[in-house]
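User: Show me sequence and structure for the first protein, then do the same for the second.

Assistant: Starting with the first protein.
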Amino acid sequence: MAGSADRARLRTAEADREHAIDVLKAAFVQGRLTKDELDARLGRTLVSRTYADLADLTDDIPASVLQASKPTQADRPRPRLAANKVITSGALALCAPAVLGAALCTGNGTLQRVFLLLVVMYFGVLSLVGFNQLLSWSERGSSGD
């Protein structure tokens, strides 16, 4: 029993507060809380600091609601490459010809190396974007959509 008392004093993380919010929302949807109760508890959830604080807000909600609101591995979003990778590859594609032209006109070895670096970066970003797209297609195909 000392273990649970010790845990009650531990500070919660943002994910713990978000889970409590999910539980409260599920209880509200099921009609277990009124709108006013939900609003009051949500406000207290956002300022709670310990597991005991969160337990006070959800201890009168049945365990079935607590279990139903836990996210599964499939519910968690997977990290994705941001759209700025595509923008970056586009910017590289526009800069590379300008650098190549300057390198060829001037015969500057440094500009030639910069051009090669831009080409390598372009294909690196393009590869990452393509790999991300393949993962997306693979997930859609395996989920039965």
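Switching to the second protein now.
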Amino acid sequence: MNISTELHPAVVHLPIALFLLATAAGLLYLFWRPLPALRTLTWIPMLLGEIAGLVAVLTGLLAQSGLPPDAPYRGVLNLHIGAGLGQLVVYGFLLYRRWLFDKAKARRDRAAAGVDYPDLLDDPSARVWVALLLVLGALLVLATGWNGGRLVYGWGVNVRG
């Protein structure tokens, strides 16, 4: 076994926890109470989850590079990889949109239009699509973990014998 085979299972739990925390906090902020602590618990764990997710994806791609290309579990592996990359895209897009929302020019434009929301989560026009992307991201996290579990527990992929 190479080091990436041992690193991947060790690092995957961090982005799972961070992305699910960010999703829960974001949805609570949008549909329960707009508390500043929930806003913080949305964006900071999401950013940290994105970083940890990149590490998990890189170690996972390295770990799977030694697997046979015609293995019977290749379909499950492809679903696992696709969902893992998908969650990085979804949460990365949310972080990017927040960054655009926070740019100084965007703030000036909103102030000139007579509307100035402190955060993307406060913008009524973004509420639905942000909520949908948070739910989609969480579903991709669950799909990634489910298929990763199928690979390990169902097929014994990269398990020491």
